[in-house]
Write a structure and sequence with these properties.
Length: 346
């Protein structure tokens, strides 16, 4: 195991139950970490066809750095972690990262978001590690539309992964970005998967994080998605939201899973935000829509102690903006977003 506490006097086995509050009294206890900026798909809402310029590997957070950061976040009350990317399973040491995170014992919940193309062979080890919460991105159940969106021919593989995860009792959420003129006809077929399968389906508004190559979103709003759902399922019930939920939640009576609609662009959920993001190169994002408020990789590489890291996180979290609109206003580059979601992690 990595020597994660080399410069430390923090006792990693002590994890407080109380999480930090930000200056709007929101409990912040969920970290999303992008472990790579690389991806084997080319979803057009995320990056251009030719891909994005990848950072040299040495610029990405290393295994030791990620494990250390997660250990430190555990000491300030973080309870949930999500590994994302890029495609996290492209990272060669990803399973080791999951193992070291599991060994830390800091997190009640270790989650992964994946495109499902590379994870099948890891299912047995994920089960052994007790990691059973996976968000799988599938924007269409139609092979041709899937290809049009992802620019790759992997629908069958991804759908097979979905069924393998189901068969192995994973708790799955399907994520679908819904776009006008592209895949609105997939809303009902995707929602119907929750009828006979134990899967929650999440519809997401498109956001402007596509590597800067396209200005006009094809977003179909959360309200439009809800309207389609309600028309098809007149008995759709609205469920209560819990702290940290980004989705408005619905349930069709007798369906096994629920349906969520995430107003990611309309940003209606910021008042219950509970999250911190770390990009693959160590940029801390207090909000998806901020520019990155600090580079924790560079700070760590100056040789700071764990206590200094802990204090730095506490200082940064106090700067968390009220909502995504405020964060966007403070961007140095204005509201034109140049990053790809593959760097930020979603
Ligand atoms: N590669 C993995 C995947 O696709 O699941 C993990 C990383 S991906 C960036 C995380 C999530 O962000 C996916 O569910 C993806 O659909 C979503 N996403 C990417 N770009 C987006 C955008 N411009 N607007 C809304 N969601 C986006
Ligand atoms: Fe890759 Fe995920 Fe971005 Fe699609 S959304 S290109 S799978 S990182």
């Amino acid at each position: 195991m990595a020597n994660i506490s080399k410069n430390s006097y923090i006792e990693y086995s002590y994890y407080p139950r109380n999480a930090m509050k930000d200056s709007f009294n929101r409990t912040i206890d969920y970290v999303r970490i992008a472990v790579t900026d690389r991806c084997n798909l080319r979803c057009f809402y995320c990056m251009p066809a030719e891909g994005i310029p990848y950072e040299p590997k040495a610029h990405l957070l290393s295994y030791e750095e990620i494990t250390r950061l997660l250990g430190v976040l555990g000491t300030i009350g973080f309870k949930k972690v999500r590994f994302t990317g890029g495609e996290p399973f492209l990272r060669k040491d990803f399973m080791e990262l999951l193992e070291s995170t599991s060994r830390l014992g800091a997190f009640d919940s270790i989650n992964i978001t994946s495109n499902g193309t590379l994870l099948q062979k890891h299912i047995p080890r994920l089960k052994e590690l007790g990691i059973h919460k996976i968000n799988l991105s599938i924007d269409s159940l139609n092979k041709d539309r899937f290809h049009k969106i992802t620019r790759r021919d992997d629908f069958e593989k991804v759908f097979e992964t979905f069924h393998m995860l189901l068969a192995n009792d994973f708790k799955i959420k399907l994520n679908a970005v819904i776009m006008s003129g592209i895949n609105t006809q997939d809303i009902i077929p995707l929602a119907e998967l929750a009828k006979d399968h134990s899967v929650d389906v999440r519809f997401i508004e498109e956001m402007p994080f596509n590597g800067g190559y396209k200005e006009n979103l094809k977003m179909y709003s959360a309200k439009d998605i809800y309207k389609d759902l309600k028309t098809h399922f007149p008995n759709l019930k609205t469920l209560d939201m819990k702290h940290g939920d980004t989705a408005n939640l619905y349930k069709v009576p007798n369906h096994q899973g629920n349906i969520g609609v995430i107003a990611a662009f309309s940003r209606t959920f910021c008042n219950t935000c509970n999250r911190l993001r770390i990009s693959s190169k160590g940029d801390i994002k207090n909000c998806l829509y901020d520019d990155g408020v600090f580079n924790i990789r560079d700070y760590m590489r100056t040789g700071v102690s764990d206590k200094e890291l802990q204090l730095k996180f506490q200082d940064l979290l106090r700067l968390k903006p009220k909502d995504g609109f405020e964060a966007e206003k403070m961007r140095k580059g204005g509201s034109k977003n140049m990053e790809s979601m593959s760097v930020i992690g979603g």
